[in-house]
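Task: fold both queries, return tokens.
Query 1:
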Amino acid sequence: MDCTGFMEWAVGNGAHHFGVDIRDCSNEGGKGLFATTDFRENETIISIPVGLIITAGFIAEMPNYCDVFKRYCLKPFEALVYFFLVEKKQNSKWAPYLEVLPKSFSTPASIHPSLEPEDFPYCLRKQWYVQKNELKMMYKKFVTILADNTIWDHFLWAWHIVNTRCIYRNNKLHPLIDNTEDDSLAIVPLIDMLNHSNDSQCCAIWDGKLNLCKVIVTRPIRKGEQIFICYGSHTNGSLWIEYGFYLKDNICNKVEISLGSLSLNITDNGGIPIVLCHLIKIVMIKTLCDLRVLLGSVSQIYIEK
């Protein structure tokens, strides 16, 4: 099943697009969506019906899954991973979608799983530690559910599918799902083909009246351009850990400055008396805070104390 077949399947199940095509992306790797016509601001590019939107509650209503969810109370993220872990391409409604999903990922969890938090810059250590621990605990849970039928590599693939493709949606809570941390995750076929850029031209919204997930143009798009959406404000380190890529010119990058280390460096290498060094530190704090106010959302400067 190629991308054309997938598009036909999506349209046959109620999806609509108004001039997009799936193509290989030489720069980003993988695939992306490209405009086959010009789009103006506020135009709808894609609409996906609720019947194609995969949520934890949606899966819990499927005959092959509800019995498992009655015995094991899974969180929304876990329920989505479980779906991709056990759903088979043969005789599945979702086969055309499963066929076009990526087979591999370039995240550290996939290609450098032995890395320790200490191998990362200080600002990324907690993120990597939390992710590694989440993977370990979730895998143990699925081993309990599926016994010896859980293969780590296949689990890791399913986890990546959810982590790299889910979007925010305020879902109706389902009694078979552990909603203690709410349920706001959804996988939306076709829309999940949109790649990330801080300079995106569209956004995804939920149309409650029509029960559709839509992609709306936020600035004009020319025919032939790749269509981007913004995943949020992420540094390149965070993008690599979560999605396996980075941006060449990322306006969300930031550098943490340790004033304690910098003060010591000034004292040791510059011959500046310690009293004067403290005065410099106070001036620097004020300067950095002023920069934070001036730069606003364009950049962030964190003061590590």
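Query 1 returned. Query 2:
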Amino acid sequence: MIEIIGKNGIAQIMIDTVDADTVQQIYGLLNAGVTENSIVRIMPDCHAGTGCVVGYTQKLDKTNPRVCPNLLGCDIGCNISSLSMRLASPVDTIAFDKWIRETIPLGTGGYSPKGCSKKHLKEIHRDDLTLFKDVERLMKEDGKKGLEMKVPILDQLFSIGSGNHFIELGEDSKGYNWITVHSGSRNLGLAVCKIYQRLAEEYCDDKCPPELRFLDKDSPYYDRYLTCVHACQRFSKINHALILLEILKYLNKHYGYSNYITCNDSIETMHNYLDLDEMILRKGAVRANEGETILLPFNMRDGIAICKGKGNEDWNFSAPHGCGRILKRSEVKGLIDLEAAKEEMERNNIFTTSLEYSLDECADAYKSKEVIINAVEPTLEIVDFIKPFYNLHG
């Protein structure tokens, strides 16, 4: 563990080795007013990020909470969810890959050209429909030209996105198959972050860099921002449920299944969000309350650990959301060979057609699985592993 002392508080980093860029970013956060009277714990998978160090947890001062939109970032509500079942026959991964690419929009601008289908609209509760409508109004009132959403909220549903977002199939030690989806709040989250960070910079008078200025309860935009955050988190949950259900239907049709868990009972682990009950902000970190089942993904080769939280208060009741980068995306092409990465996936019996554009998600771009497993012992119990046999990044 490493302790860093800044002007407004102390942060504990829950691992013994951290790079200089990450340490510098943590100092910047501790010297800004947004961390005053709060408890900061940095997870073992930490690395420097845009706006905030990834692996950041902050227990806010409940009497005077301060929220910087940049700390939560633009992918509000990003999470990973998995659904298990027992298949009657092996999956034809070539056919499955073709169906996924034809059915579920991928990539930065990947949305259905027809918008939200009537079939999917029927799956959304009217309270959520009302929330999305209210949030579109708030964003229109609070935003400026150039900060608008590119696509209406409902029409962004049933899509994955790009970067480290993915769809994966795997198998655990008991022979159960798992569907896993990793995605966030798409363009909705990006627009919310940009709109309310601009307002924080305009109204906050804290003497800190503009990108670390915050909204507090005295701000006219504090509650409006939290409403938008809630909508992003709901969007992500609904999006995952729609995608998981569609994949489940496909697998049932072609391969049969039994003893499956419904979407409502799937394991869901959000890692970019504001816990509005406990007032804990987690950026690239997950909740790990005692007995809580969570997913800990490693990389596209090593798969996912199924874990139980230990409820460790010293860790802000939190755990890492992955292995943590050791290579920036911009560094990967010069340091990792594409053909070698393809051969490694083949040796591990993992089918993928996305390595050409997702080389920055292979195992060598991240800290090792073993380092993270050893580091999380105080906050997580490892229950099982899901070994992937199919992976597709957006």
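Both queries returned. Flag for query 2: The chain has one domain: 2-393.
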